[in-house]
Design a protein that fits this description.
A four-stranded antiparallel β-sheet has the order 1-2-3-4, with no helix packed on it. It is globular. The protein contains one helix and four strands, in the order αββββ. 12% of the residues lie in helices and 30% in strands.
């Protein structure tokens, strides 16, 4: 799965507003600051905090 770079440039971590990095092998977005991970399901980032 590939996420568009423009989308990644706009998205931020809902917990601390840090930048997100996409890991295609894990299919998740990871915050560079707080290290929280958010799944990407069917190409849609799920940015919900538990």
């Amino acid at each position: 799965m590939h996420l568009d770079q423009e989308l990644l440039d706009v998205l931020c971590c809902p917990a601390d507003h840090g930048d997100l990095s996409y890991s295609p092998e894990a299919e998740e977005l990871r915050c560079d600051r707080c290290a929280l991970a958010y799944p990407v399901r069917d190409g849609i980032p799920v940015l919900l905090m538990d």
